[in-house]
Amino acid sequence: MAKQPLVVVAAALVDSNTRIFVQQRPPGKAMAGLWEFPGGKVEPGEQPEAALVRELREELAIETETACLAPATFATGMIEDRQLLLLLYVCRKWKGQVVPTEASDSRWLHKQQLFALDMPPADQPLVAMLDALL
Ligand SMILES: Nc1nc2c([nH]c(=O)n2[C@H]2C[C@H](O)[C@@H](COP(=O)(O)OP(=O)(O)OP(=O)(O)O)O2)c(=O)[nH]1
């Protein structure tokens, strides 16, 4: 039987200067070295927004809430033999300083700068949509 799609949630954190946070996947993880939006896999039974609140806490040490996550766009792709459904939210409100805990590098970039980044294939349409949305 075909596997269920892998649902991944990610956030475009947007600061007061309309810069967007991106981070680099560390060695040892799939797609190491590529730049991504913070986020991760939705666990079984978990609501996507709750998963993203959890991932932002774990990866960036910030607190936000479901109401601060605006659904923005999505992308599909393949991760090995599994379909990927990547849900992107825009988040402009959170508590705390963004302190990456897992990434090997991180940057706050203007939306046009995202086009030059080496990102996973599924992220390319997300970047184009953010360019139009923000
Ligand atoms: N976080 C994130 N993942 C992305 C993006 N684009 C993209 O293709 N992915 C893929 C990479 C991974 O195969 C998957 C996310 O898995 P992950 O390994 O980051 O998730 P996780 O934090 O739950 O990690 P783990 O506990 O399984 O190690 O989605 C993106 O912009 N952000």
Throw out a few tags for this protein.
single chain; 134 residues; alpha+beta; Nucleoside Triphosphate Pyrophosphohydrolase; 4-stranded mixed beta sheet; 3-stranded antiparallel beta sheet; 3 helices; 7 strands; globular; binds 8-OXO-2'-deoxyguanosine-5'-triphosphate
Summarize the SSE layout with pairings.
Elements: E1 6-13, E2 19-24, E3 35-36, E4 39-41, H1 48-60, E5 69-79, E6 82-91, E7 105-110, H2 111-114, H3 123-133
Parallel strand pairs: 1-6
Antiparallel strand pairs: 1-4, 2-3, 2-7, 5-6
Bound molecules: 8-OXO-2'-deoxyguanosine-5'-triphosphate.
Q: What can you see in these coordinates?
A:
- There is one protein chain.
- By secondary structure, the protein is α+β, with helices and mostly antiparallel strands.
- The chain has one domain: Alpha-Beta Complex (Nucleoside Triphosphate Pyrophosphohydrolase), CATH 3.90.79.10.
- 21% of the residues lie in helices and 34% in strands.
- The protein is built from three helices and seven strands; from the N terminus they run E-E-E-E-H-E-E-E-H-H.
- The protein has helices at residues 48-60, 111-114, 123-133; strands at 6-13, 19-24, 35-36, 39-41, 69-79, 82-91, 105-110.
- The protein has a four-stranded mixed sheet with strand order 4-1-6-5, with helices on both faces. Strands 3-2-7 form a three-stranded antiparallel sheet.
- A hairpin with a 2-residue loop joins strand 5 and strand 6 (82-91).
- It is globular, with a radius of gyration of 14 Å.
- It starts with 5 loop residues before the first strand and ends with a helix.
- The mean pLDDT is 97.
- Residues 8, 10, 29-31, 36-37, 39-41, 79, 86, 120, 122-123 line the site of 8-OXO-2'-deoxyguanosine-5'-triphosphate.
